[in-house]
Amino acid sequence: MAPVLTSKELVEGARREIVAHVAEEKQAGRVPCMAVVVATDDSAALSYARVKDRIAKELGIEVRIEVLDASTTQAALNQRMEALSNDPMVHGVLLELPLRRGLDANIAINCLAPQKDIDGLSDFNVARVAVGNEEVAIAPATPQACIAPAESETKVAGKLVTVIGRGRTVGRPLAHMLINRGATVIHCHSGTSDLPSLTSQCDILFTATGRAGLVGAAHVRAGQVVVDAGTDYSSGKVLGDVDAEAVGHVVKAYTPVPGGVGPLTTVFLFKNLLKAIALQTGSEQ
């Protein structure tokens, strides 16, 4: 079996960096603060928010969890996002997805100042990443969490990579971010014909569809690195896009689900919060 690229060491390294950076912010008179807005009946969303709160406390970061009830309208959600964006004590705002039916996440996220959109999903941040200007943007956390384990094994610059999935939160921005880093990208999705012929020729394969077991032995070749950002739920288990048992006997290395991209995504959210502070204070050059 190929080596499993767990995220433990990368997470621990990132946490040390964050703790040091938070200490610097506090010395400068700022306590990094993130607001998490929950406007859904999905119990998992509130659970995820509480996990962020727990990890934030370990890092010295303040988190405000705001739960909006079922009567919340789009206008009320927008107003709350604007108010948090205008609060000088809040440095970043995260909207837990998916939202309750009838609420539009894109409208709500675009009520934020781009420098407080730590999910990197506002039109401003999406556009800046797409045109290769990540320095003045906040990039989505999950694509960053995909690239990190891949680069722990091999640099993406100069490599032929394949991305499966065109979702707004992972697949689309990931393809742009890989191009920004010098990779040659094949972008596949549900409309792609003969998927195995495209995935099996690349050096690094990224997948983010949420379709359990989509990628099997026929999709890969020896020497590849495979990064799985897909999550699906079956019989109480969290499953990835990759059939690890089948793929693990072929490729060079792969990330597991759970234990791969997921834990890294959380720490990159906090790194985004610190970048947000730098953008707001003018210290990000």
From TrEMBL:
<dbReference type="InterPro" id="IPR020630">
    <property type="entry name" value="THF_DH/CycHdrlase_cat_dom"/>
</dbReference>
<dbReference type="InterPro" id="IPR020631">
    <property type="entry name" value="THF_DH/CycHdrlase_NAD-bd_dom"/>
</dbReference>
<feature type="domain" description="Tetrahydrofolate dehydrogenase/cyclohydrolase NAD(P)-binding">
    <location>
        <begin position="140"/>
        <end position="278"/>
    </location>
</feature>
<keyword id="KW-0554">One-carbon metabolism</keyword>
<comment type="pathway">
    <text>One-carbon metabolism; tetrahydrofolate interconversion.</text>
</comment>
<comment type="function">
    <text>Catalyzes the oxidation of 5,10-methylenetetrahydrofolate to 5,10-methenyltetrahydrofolate and then the hydrolysis of 5,10-methenyltetrahydrofolate to 10-formyltetrahydrofolate.</text>
</comment>
<dbReference type="InterPro" id="IPR036291">
    <property type="entry name" value="NAD(P)-bd_dom_sf"/>
</dbReference>
<dbReference type="Pfam" id="PF00763">
    <property type="entry name" value="THF_DHG_CYH"/>
</dbReference>
<feature type="binding site">
    <location>
        <position position="231"/>
    </location>
    <ligand>
        <name>NADP(+)</name>
    </ligand>
</feature>
<keyword id="KW-0486">Methionine biosynthesis</keyword>
<feature type="binding site">
    <location>
        <begin position="165"/>
        <end position="167"/>
    </location>
    <ligand>
        <name>NADP(+)</name>
    </ligand>
</feature>
<dbReference type="Pfam" id="PF02882">
    <property type="entry name" value="THF_DHG_CYH_C"/>
</dbReference>
<keyword id="KW-0658">Purine biosynthesis</keyword>
<protein>
    <recommendedName>
        <fullName>Bifunctional protein FolD</fullName>
        <ecNumber>1.5.1.5</ecNumber>
        <ecNumber>3.5.4.9</ecNumber>
    </recommendedName>
</protein>
<feature type="domain" description="Tetrahydrofolate dehydrogenase/cyclohydrolase catalytic">
    <location>
        <begin position="6"/>
        <end position="119"/>
    </location>
</feature>
<comment type="subunit">
    <text>Homodimer.</text>
</comment>
<keyword id="KW-0378">Hydrolase</keyword>
<keyword id="KW-0028">Amino-acid biosynthesis</keyword>
<keyword id="KW-0511">Multifunctional enzyme</keyword>
<comment type="similarity">
    <text>Belongs to the tetrahydrofolate dehydrogenase/cyclohydrolase family.</text>
</comment>
<keyword id="KW-0368">Histidine biosynthesis</keyword>
<dbReference type="InterPro" id="IPR000672">
    <property type="entry name" value="THF_DH/CycHdrlase"/>
</dbReference>
<keyword id="KW-0521">NADP</keyword>
<dbReference type="InterPro" id="IPR046346">
    <property type="entry name" value="Aminoacid_DH-like_N_sf"/>
</dbReference>
<keyword id="KW-0560">Oxidoreductase</keyword>
